[in-house]
Structure formats: structure tokens, C-alpha cells
Amino acid sequence: MDATTEAIDGSVTEMLWDTIIVGGGAAGLSAGVELARAQFATSVVDGGAPRNGPADHMHGYLTRDGMAPGEFVATGHAEPARYVGRLVRASATDARHAPNGTFGLQLDDDRALRARSVPVAAGLADELPGIPGRSERWASEVHRRPHCHGHEVRGRTIVVIGRAMGAVSKHLAALMRRYNSGTTFCRNGIQISAAERQRLLAYGVRLIDAAVTRVVTSADTAGGNPVAIELANGETVGCSALFVAPRPVPRDAILTTLRAAEAPVSGLVAVDSQGATSCPGGWAAGNVVNPRAQVVAAAGAGSTAAISMTGRLLAQELSAAVSGDLLDVGGVN
Fold first, then answer.
1. Tens digits of residue pLDDT in 159-192
2. How far is CA 181 from each of CA 164, 176, 293, rounded to the nearest angstrom?
3. Among 102, 208, 272, 277, fewest CB within 10 Å belongs to which?
């Protein structure tokens, strides 16, 4: 693998990479470390817009609990480079699957890269409810993940705002009740059956049927309620923290361009237990195919996919060794 490793010192556009990973978050960087350690020429393409970037801390990752997401990513960017990896600061905008089985990626800076395999770990974007005042308080008083932020607001006044993700919103309202008996669920237009209403009320969740019109600074900041919601009926409800269930929008354009099959129920790109898609040489890991994955789960999925990829890449090289055509395999000679 020496020739492949040496080629990394040159232009990223002048070689056939063993793998180009789309996305430099927990899943992509974990895959990059595994593949680079296995001496595969690895490039991680990252546009630098992580989903959890606005947050001050992340949780649930053993030995990294409470670490700032920005610090986590910055530390992770350096790790593949310790082996034979390269970080490319750009976003992938297009992809093609050549007849010879290789991939071509077009970047937003007009560079074009080639690789034998493409794992996508680009994550997702949160489609948030269009409530005035919400975006200014995102990741400070307005949150989306109870397992990331619930513990930090335990014992405080919590409001959950319903929206498009009705089932998730109802689950979120019940879950947040575990953190404080003063939890309010603003239905905000989502449908709740009589049985669901009875369950939530019996569990101690206060229900509000009026629509939310705006998120504002609370008049009760001295009382520990820095934020408030204004309702269509004229009422104002103050609280310490707001939670919403945004609609997850996977950043899977590269996968769909490569015609990776979708799962019939979820509509997400389908992967097997190792992260392989229906496109030979294409893998996916993390939030792009599993919106519920926490950072630690995304990292594990990236590692699993990378180990699976080494098997396919190695099989290609063994076949090439028999045919004597080693120059077509990641630059190996």
C-alpha cells in the first residue's frame, strides 16, 4: 500500500482514492480512522456544517460526556491524518458510478475526485417549526433532543411544542415529564385522541390546545423562566426550556444520485447491518440513514461500515493481484 500512501502527499484530484467519505462528523470520522489505519488511502470530504454545531455540549458518549460538539469534531479531524487520511474542506454536490465500478465526486469548489468506494455520513438537517422567535433561541433555550439536554433542565419549567412530527411530539411531552412535574405540552395543531389525552393528563402533563404564535423573552427572568411562548388565545406561558420535535431531512442527495434503494416504510436510504447500500461500493452510516442515532451510535455505525468496506476493497485487490492489474486498485503497485 506504499504507493497509495505516498500519493496522498500530492493533489487530491490526481489519484484514485480507496475511499472518499462524504461527511466529517462522528460517523464519517470514525470510518476514516478505521480505513486509514488499515492503510487504505482515505479522504474525508466535509463542508463544516454539523447538525449539532450550535449546541454547547453533547452527552451519552462515554469519556466524552459534556464535550462541546465543535471540540469533538476538531479533535476528530486530526485523527485520520495520523495514518493515511486527508481532510478535504468542501461539500460533495454530485456523484457518478462509472462502468468500471469506481466513483466520481464533484465538489462545490469545482474539484473532482475519484474513489473505489464512497461511504456517505453527511447527517441530516432539522426542519423546525416556523414560529417567530424560535431560531434566535435555538440550542440555548429551545432544544430538540431530550437525551442530550433533558438532564440539564431537570427540575425546571419545561414546555414542549407540537408540530408536524405528531407521534414524536407526544412521546417527547411524556418523556420530558420525567424531568419535571411542571411540564406543559402545547398541542399546536397536532391531533390527540381521547385515550392519548387521558394518558398524558394522568401522567401529569399539562395540555394546551391553543396554537403557539411566538417565542419571546419572558418577563419572569428573575424567577428562572427566561423564555415564554405567546398563544393564539392571548395567553403567555413562561418556562426555562422549550423542546420541539423537528422533521429530520437526511442529507442523502449523493446516495439518491447513485440510485441507492430506499426502505419502503421509512423512505430513508436502505442499508444492511454493515451499512452497505444497494449501490455496490456505496455505504451509509449515522443520521443520514438513522435520524435517532446519538453521536456515540453514529460513531459506532461509521466504524462498522468501515470494517465491512475493508472486506470489499481487499477482495478487489486480491482479484487484481491475480490478473496483474494492480495499478487500477487504489494506486497499489
1. 999 987 899 999 999 999 999 988 999 999 999 9
2. 25, 9, 27
3. 272
